[in-house]
Amino acid sequence: MKQRIKTRHIILGVMCLMYFIAYIDRVNISVAGPLIRQEMGLTSAQLGLVFSAFAYPYAVMQILGGWLSDKFGPKKVLICLSVIWGVATLLTGFAGSVLTLVLLRFALGVGEGGAFPTATRAFTYWMPVAERGFAQGVTHSFARLGGAVTPPIVLAIIATHGWREAFFVLGAISIAWTLLYAFVFKNSPDEHKRVTPEEMTEIGYSRGECQRAAKAATPWRRLFKRMWLVTFVDFCYGWSLWVYLTWLPSYLKDSRGFDLKQLALFTALPLMAGVVGDTLGGVLSDRIFKHTGNLRLARGAILFVGLAGSLVFIVPMIFTADAVNAVVLLSLSFFFLELTNAVLWSLPLDIAGKFAGTAGGMMNTGFGLAGMISPVAFGYLIEMTGSYTLPFMISAGLLGVGALASLFINPLRTIDSPDDHKPRGFRRHGHGHALP
Fold it and tell me: Within a domain: residue 201?
């Protein structure tokens, strides 16, 4: 008898597709950037401003989008957000000035800003605790896969039609995903006709739990006390990630001398390494937890190894003279950086449970703040020094600081734990699961 696909795995597949599309829409501007810069006569600082315009509303929408998903459910909220970013992507193809580009990237940031916290909130009632690392890892690996395939996809459309047509096509795909999500997703397992009682038990969900949680008051102060350090580490992580997402094609072209055809391959390689890192980080974290029962070790070990490993490889990349070696070192550095991503997104679920949308927004505000500063600072320092060395050294320093800070993160200190409580033995976790 053919085994029935679990409903939560179908939903996970739809969310993977969202992450994939969202990152294509986020990264496409950096691939088209050199051509847009040439056509519109932009300086490095102006291009950096276009890159960073996305990050300002992105940062603001993190907490707001997460809170809205906690209160009104992730289905309605994510439909609205995905329509906004899909339309913004499509309209970018009509842009004729720096101001128009900035405004459309701003709108894209509004749409995508609340999307990932909302997706995290969606997993609260759909993913068992022991599958959360994998769920966050595989979805974010699809995000990196989207970033990795963006250069060849966008460059192929540019070569045959033009950079504007690339945004027309990608915007239409985003709107099509919205229709799929609206058809498949429900806020909780008890709202989905396809979910069996056996799967409900596997998930650990109690009927009506989602509806009760929506009526609960948000514990803002306690959430901030539990999440501020996670937010800081996410900032350190996000600084380097923004460099890859915005300046990598320009760096490989300007500093390493790759032509347009080579860019498609050598921009994709580091991002493909991130695809592997994302999934592996989540799988390793879940496996450590299953074998040891120690959630702090499962999350903290991967965080530290990932950030420290990224630092180890980025420093020699800066000083190597060989262009291909630089790409290899960039790929290894990005692989280790992405080991941490699934863990960072699992922590809001671990710590906040039914308030994971708000907590995920708090955490990813660090990434949004990094996005405000990193692309502009990178462009400014390149113009000031005529080199990429100093900007990359700053990234390396933040990786080291983030690795040290990650040692003090404790997912056992949940919002249900008293401020002076040191968890030991059994504890209540998330939305009612008992963990050793």
Answer: no
